[in-house]
Write a structure and sequence with these properties.
It is found in: Nucleus. This protein is an alpha/beta fold and about 1300 residues long. About 25% of the residues lie in helices and about 20% in strands.
């Protein structure tokens, strides 16, 4: 394990350093690797399958024990391509396979194993072994191997093999046909024609030779140039294709389990040194360019080198040449070039980055949306109030379509005064179609964080979306800065989070036709003059026609002190307010500076305001405006008074929500709650009050008030507002509730859709406690580490499951459609899975031909599955979504059938389904996003799915990945039973009620495993029992490998019980499952006031064990060793990060059916035990009949413990006499503890055929297969559309 960690440590250190050399280079001459830590159950084929995902395996040597023949747990493998060894070592070292950690390392000098001669002597191997080299098929007969049919080799495992062979035969036949046609085409030519033809052929050949010579000369120039730059290994026999470097292939192989921010964030470490075109001096760039154009397409090798190098991320070092290198890269490229910045890297600029050609892009590799985005810092000189202020400039005349994506820009203003110059980001100009998205811009040196300029009033169609803006400027007089400033017509500003701007949050300089929606503007630590400003007359002469500002959220200051009981308002330590939420008209802002000029033509509607303002909306000097349906929500305050900058002639109106100067507004439509004011000039001159209880509670940052000079990260601070006042959150009912097939006891799956500034930690650390405090809420428990993170709760008796999906949006509109695939961009896999339930439910309803028939049929099937105890995704059966998709598939096959016909065909078709053929409601769709799509040809884990049912939405996922071999057998048997019953129902020999007969789980098996999870706290018990239940599937999978065990059948729910104990001995007994009648009858009031007394909460789960029948002729008892799987299971559950051995208990023990507690049976269900007749000569103590398991009480040996619960694995052995033994011997059930070596003795059992239940071997002739009605073809029914 130390070697495994050391290799990983070296790799991590190498990635952080970003060096061009690698420790892997020391092993470049060996294609062998060592693989240790292999599970001894793995075969050579299994190992080849695991390691072949990184290259073709040519040889494998897996040493085996000479006596037993079992593998020793390690192997040596040889790859066809040496570079594959690097991929294998980097990706598989430290990986877990079958619960064992692999050690994968290079082998410097591999020695071939010796071979045994004819006389038994050992010899050194004379030839290289290629025992794993795949068979290559080039045809199906001798003729196909001729030179005429030679072509690419075909792997026999290629799924396209048959098709490729057929195409090859067709091409061969066509070639023969054309050759036979051409044999006599020159027979009639004259001698002159023949000489001319040969001359043309000779000239063509000479031209080809000259081109080849020119190519060689060009390549020599390239190699010479690279060598002069410090390249190495150039021109050697071993070449490396830059487009397939180990690093690139390594990134690809990791993509299914590594977030995008790390997939492509490693600088190239190829054998030829990484030389980016942008990092070359101008002379070298010119030489490369001239060489490239000199022989153009004649040198594809050079083209590959050139493209590969400029596609790697730009290095920030050396910093003194960084800006020049970046701008050279943009200027020396062309249309569509992507300048990639390295994740988690800081770039110190001395001058602006300048876009140069249309459709260029600047972005971080992998497009992350968190703090791993590359950070560009404005770091150039400043003197006398002027200097470097802009990081990125996209205003060139050829900059249409340029994109700035997924980076961070730090203006690095610090405590300095404003600098004259441009914004952090300057875009627009005489261009169209520019995009700025997922950018974080903060601390600008000048007047704005982001500016889109108007050009010659011809800028058009900019998109500003999903950005994090702020803080911008400081609220000291005339040191303000805007968040987003737009003067470009027909643009879109949406889904942005603007935090702590100080001048205007979003400022529109006219910009006719622009849409501004779903943005959030929040004044956290600094006073904001205006949230959204439509006040500037220039440069569009007040033209705001077709501008629509809607569905934005503007948040003023909130109280930062703690609220006392009954308080609604308090103090804000920074005196933070928003002076005007939305300002309309020049006079509102500038007074009479522009005379009587007015703005015209805009619409402001459905915007929301909360917090402290002077005015929510102020409307002056405007015409043809529409202002409607804007609202206040939660707590608001309207405060402020005249400040020293107010004109002596102005009458500052009293702060109010919506104010209008009727004297300067004309031809406009406004909502009814506007207050008329006499003078609307220069409303921004008001000042917030100096302290006092004026600020509302309900969404502020509490006592957390970070300084404005910070990074601007808002995840933690926004949690309070995001969850406290529930802005921008959409709760969506999913699955059963959405499909409308819920019944009594059904839980409601609820998806909580949150904006990007609310993290998953906020969901569990803020929302879960809020839910726990909610009136009527009980049993609240969060499981953040689950495959789909979830909070379960019971509210007023209704069970609810809360899932959380964090979208890359600043706000969540109430009319959001989750079916939009673009919502999956820049979110993690757990959020994709959380969204899946709602998306799948909607897709199912769209794909079924008759929704009502589908609902009726599904309600029937779900009731059947619940009654038969096969409805539980966590235990390896089908969940609600899977059952819905199965029923939907039958509805598709029979679009005109009624519900009864759907149900009957459901059982017949599902029983005959050819698993693992997947169930598909539609063909699987590929998409552009970096998410995993179910593909068994590509992913080994997908190939392991036993009963795949694939979701109909992108990305396609398997809803039944939890199914095990045992649960597949059980589910298939239930399909068979259902099919038999509906057959009888159709002919009138049975009723539908028989289909819903309760399961017989607790009557079916002779032996059971009892898993008991216990704690002393009700809330803790919910989480602990849920953790144990989620791991039972792993126990089942381990039990399936036990010899003589046919299957392990998990029951679908646990049994909760509260026992009131008055001593440590009783606590230990209850934790072990031994609850005496005295303890069972004791009530809570019986222990009140007694020292040391308290409740013990237990949840008991059961796994039925079906043991193989005893083989004819075998004698004596057999041993069923389940010590390994049970021990590993207890280790697994104790690995839970919150496990505390002093407060949590876990016990696994074997019991017989006669020892099952009464609480697993319904009243009257348990049959009384019949009295046993003693056979002649039998002992009175005999109780060993296979039909009557021993009824003696199981005794457990429990060591004393001072803790509440001392978890200990207990396996009770029962030695039962053979059924055909001539002598009867009494059995004594005893408890066993671990041996000296820590293992638990095996279980000795002699089962009978009845223990196998429905799974006992049957004569195939006795099995009647259910059939579809006459004329229906099962093969067609089970096919995929």
């Amino acid at each position: 394990m130390n070697i495994v960690k050391e290799i990983n440590r070296i790799n991590d250190a190498e990635l952080k350093l970003g060096t061009t050399a690698s420790w892997h280079d020391d092993y470049k001459d060996s294609a062998y690797i060592f693989a240790g830590g292999l599970n001894t159950e793995l075969t050579e084929g299994d190992v080849v399958t695991i390691f072949s995902q990184y290259g073709e395996i040519m040889d494998i040597n897996m040493p085996r024990d000479k006596e037993t023949g079992k593998p020793k747990g390690f192997a040596f493998l040889m790859y066809e391509d040496q570079r594959s060894t690097t991929l294998a070592v980097d990706n598989l070292n430290g990986a877990k396979v079958l619960e064992r950690t692999l050690r994968v390392d290079h082998v410097r000098n591999y020695k071939q194993p010796k071979t045994k001669g004819e006389n038994g002597e050992w010899h050194e191997a004379e030839e290289q072994s290629f025992n794993a080299k795949p068979e290559i098929i080039t045809g199906e007969n001798e003729e196909s191997e001729s030179s005429e049919s030679s072509g690419p080799e075909i792997d026999p495992e290629d799924p396209m093999r048959d098709y490729l062979l057929e195409k090859r035969r067709e091409e061969k036949a066509l070639k023969k046909k054309s050759k036979s046609k051409g044999k006599g085409k020159h027979k009639d030519e004259t001698p002159e024609e023949r000489r001319a033809r040969k001359a043309r052929k000779k000239e063509k050949k000479e031209k080809k030779e000259r081109r080849k010579a020119e190519k060689s000369e060009g390549m020599r120039e390239v190699e010479k140039l690279l060598e002069s730059l410090g390249g190495r290994d150039v021109g050697r026999g071993r070449s490396h294709s830059p487009s397939q470097t180990p690093e690139r292939r390594r990134h690809h192989s990791r993509s299914s389990r590594t977030p995008p921010s790390r997939q492509l964030g490693i600088k190239s470490t190829t054998q030829i040194r990484n030389i980016e075109a942008a990092s070359l001096p101008p002379t070298y760039t010119q030489r490369l360019t001239s060489l490239f154009h000199s022989f153009g397409k004649s040198s594809p090798h050079f083209l590959i080198i050139y493209v590969a190098k400029v596609s790697d991320c730009i290095s920030p070092d050396p910093a003194n040449t960084l800006t020049d290198r970046i701008n050279i890269a943009l200027n020396s490229s062309s249309d569509g070039y992507i300048l990639k910045l390295c994740p988690s890297t800081q770039y110190l600029l001395q001058a602006p980055i300048l876009f140069a050609f249309p459709n260029q892009e600047i972005s971080t590799v992998g497009y992350p949306t968190d703090d791993t985005r590359a950070t560009v810092v404005v770091n150039g000189p400043v003197s006398n109030g002027a200097g470097h202020t802009t990081a990125v400039d996209g205003t060139c005349t050829t900059c249409s379509g340029v994109k700035l994506r997924n980076i961070q820009i730090d203006g690095a203003r610090g405590d300095a005064s404003p600098t004259n110059g441009g914004a952090n980001i300057e875009m627009g100009g005489s261009n169209s179609g520019q995009v700025i998205e997922y950018v974080r811009s903060f601390n600008p040196r000048s007047w704005s964080c982001l500016h889109i300029s108007e050009g010659n009033l011809d800028c058009e169609g900019a998109t500003i979306q999903n950005n994090d803006i702020g803080p911008c400027g400081v609220d000291t007089f005339q040191q303000w800065a805007d968040g987003i400033s737009v003067a470009c017509q027909n643009s879109v500003v949406r889904n942005n989070m603007i935090e702590d701007p100080t001048d205007g949050g979003i400022v529109l300089f006219g910009s006719p036709g622009t849409q501004v929606y779903n943005n959030t503007i929040w004044a956290v630590n600094q006073t904001l003059l205006g949230g959204i400003n439509l006040v500037d007359y220039m440069p569009w002469n007040g033209n705001f026609s077709n501008v629509v500002v809607y569905n934005n959220t503007i948040l003023g200051g909130f109280a930062t002190d703690r609220a006392d009981a009954g308080d609604t308002k308090g103090e804000n330590k920074e005196d933070v307010i928003v002076k005007i939420g939305i300002a309309i008209g020049p006079m509102t802002w500038f007074g009479d500076r522009y005379g009587k000029n007015v703005t015209s033509g805009g619409t402001v509607k459905e915007n929301r305001f909360s917090g402290a303002f002077s005015y929510a909306i102020a409307l002056t000097s405007a015409t043809n405006f529409v202002v409607e349906n804007n609202v206040l929500f939660d707590n608001t305050s309207f405060i402020g008074s005249r400040g020293p900058n107010c004109s002596s002639d102005d009458v500052t109106p009293t702060p109010a929500a919506f104010v209008i100067d009727q004297n300067t507004v004309s031809s406009s439509t406004t909502q009814s709650d506007f207050t008329s004011i006499q003078d609307g000039n220069s409303l921004t001159c008001v000042l917030p009050p100096d302290g006092g209880d004026f600020w509302p509670y309900g969404g502020g940052t509490g006592e957390q008030a970070p300084g404005s000079g910070g990074s601007g990260s808002s995840a933690g601070r926004n949690a309070g507002i995001a969850l406290g006042i529930i802005f921008g959150i959409l709760f969506v009912a999913i699955s059963t509730w959405l499909i409308r097939v819920h019944g009594p006891g059904s839980d409601i799956d609820t998806l909580c859709v949150v904006p990007k500034h609310v993290s998953r930690e906020d969901f569990f650390e803020v929302f879960e406690p809020m839910l726990r405090d909610f009136e009527g809420a009980t049993e609240v428990a969060g499981v953040p580490e689950a495959y789909v993170p979830i909070i379960t709760a019971n509210i007023n008796g209704i069970p609810l499951d809360f899932l959380m999906a964090r979208l890359a949006l600043s706000t969540i509109p109430e009319d959001l459609s989750l079916q939009d695939d673009n919502l999956l961009r820049n979110i993690d896999e757990r959020c994709v899975r959380s969204l899946g339930g709602s998306r799948v439910a909607n897709a199912i309803l769209e794909l079924v031909p008759n929704v009502q028939v589908f609902r009726d049929s599904l309600r029937c099937i779900k009731l059947w599955a619940q009654r038969r105890a096969i409805y539980s995704n966590v235990n390896g059966f089908f969940g609600g979504v899977a059952w819905a998709m199965l029923v939907a598939r039958i509805c598709q096959l029979y679009p005109n059938a009624i519900a009864g016909a759907i149900v009957s065909r459901f059982f017949i078709i599902m029983y005959q389904w050819s698993w693992p053929q997947p169930v598909l409601l539609k063909q699987i769709e590929e998409g552009p996003l970096q998410v995993k799509v179910w593909n068994p040809k590509l992913y080994p884990s997908d190939r392991s799915h036993r009963m795949p049912i694939i979701t109909p939405t992108y990305p396609a996922m398997c809803a039944t990945h939890n199914v095990t071999a045992s649960t597949q057998m059980i589910t298939t048997e239930e399909f068979k039973r259902g099919a038999d019953i509906v057959d009888k129902v159709i002919v009138g020999s049975a009723s539908w009620s028989e289909l819903f007969t309760k399961h017989d789980f607790f009557h079916k098996y002779r032996y059971y495993l009892q898993i008991i999870a216990s704690t002393g706290n009700a809330d803790l018990q919910i989480k602990w029992s849920g953790t144990v239940e989620s791991r039972i599937r792993q126990l089942v999978m381990k039990l399936e490998y036990v010899d003589s065990l046919m299957l392990a059948h998990p029951f679908v729910k646990g049994f909760d019980q509260v026992s009131y104990c008055i001593s440590d001995e009783e606590v230990r007994a209850v934790a072990q499952g031994d609850i005496s009648e005295t303890i069972a009858k004791r009530k809570k009031e019986d222990i009140e006031g007694k020292e040391g007394a308290g409740p013990v909460y237990t949840t008991t789960f059961y796994v039925g064990l079906a043991v193989e029948p005893k083989q004819p002729g075998s004698v004596g008892p057999r041993r069923l060793d389940i010590s390994y799987p049970t021990t590993e299971f207890t280790k697994l559950v104790k690995m839970w990060e919150k496990f505390d051995e002093s407060t949590m208990g876990i016990v696994v023990r074997n019991i017989k059916s006669s020892s099952l507690p009464d609480n697993v049976f319904d009243p009257g269900e348990r049959q009384p035990k019949p009295a046993q007749k003693r056979t002649k000569g039998s002992s009175k103590s005999s109780n060993t009949s296979p039909e009557m398991p021993s009824s003696k009480r199981i005794r457990t040996l429990v060591p004393p413990s001072k803790y509440l619960i001392s978890p200990q694995l207990v396996i009770c052995d029962s030695l039962i006499r053979s059924n055909n033994s001539s002598k009867e011997q009494p059995t004594t059930p005893t408890a066993t503890t671990a041996n000296a070596n820590g293992s638990i003795p095996p279980l000795s059992v002699t089962p009978v055929v009845e223990t196998a239940g429905a799974f006992a071997p049957k004569d195939p002739a006795d099995i009647k297969s259910p059939q579809l009605p006459l004329g229906e073809n099962a093969a067609i029914a089970t096919s995929v559309q």
